[in-house]
Structures are given as C-alpha cells and as structure tokens.
Design a protein that fits this description.
- Helices cover about 0% and strands about 65% of the residues.
- It is an all-beta fold.
- It has a 6-stranded antiparallel beta barrel.
C-alpha cells in the first residue's frame, strides 16, 4: 500500500476499568496508540428494532501492522477542520492480508455517542 493513501490520523482506544473512591467501577477509554490510516465506507443498512429505525454504517480502516489490536478496541477519528466533531468506530474484525504483518484491515461499525 502506498503511504499517500494513509491520510487520516486515528487514535486506537481500549477499554479500561477504574474504581472511584466509593468503590464504583467506571468504564473509560485509554489511548492504545496513534497512527495514520485510510477509511472507506464498505456498506450500510437500516433496520427496525424496538419500533425505532436504526442505521448501521460499516467502514474498512487500513493501518500499518502493530501487534496487540483486539475487537474490544475502538477507533477515534477527529476531523482536523472541526476538532469538536469526533467519530468513533467499534472494531468488529481484524484481518492481516497475506499474513505478511505489513498492514491490518479493521472492519468497523460507526457508533453514535
């Protein structure tokens, strides 16, 4: 893959549990790593659940290989023109094309927060 196609600056986040002074567990997201990647919409659908229309938009995100990515993580993308509008993508599956440890293809679904 040509480096020029990796034009999106991405944060890879993982869940972390913390306990506050009252002993309550809270789920937070900690940065696992930062990298350049490419994002492409790979499909979408709308469906009816609990009398509400729900849309599901899937993306294929390609990044350079790094060991340690898991489907429990998410990708955060912030548009440089509008830093207040972050988008989040839950990682559903991870593919290592040709098992060459050069690139990873992350199959993700966009999350609205």
């Amino acid at each position: 893959m040509r480096a020029g196609t990796l034009r999106h600056w991405l944060l890879i986040e993982q869940k972390s549990l913390s306990v506050d002074a009252n002993g309550d567990r809270t789920e937070t997201w900690a940065t696992f790593g930062e990298c350049w990647g490419s994002m492409e919409t790979s499909g979408g659908r709308e469906f009816l659940a609990a009398k509400q229309t729900i849309s599901d938009l899937t993306h294929s995100i390609v990044v350079r290989y790094k060991a340690g990515y898991t489907p429990d993580m998410r990708v955060k993308f912030t548009d440089p023109k509008n830093s207040n509008a972050a988008r989040y993508f839950n990682i559903r599956a991870i593919a290592n094309p040709d098992e060459r440890n050069e690139m990873l293809s992350l199959q993700c679904s966009e999350v609205t927060i």
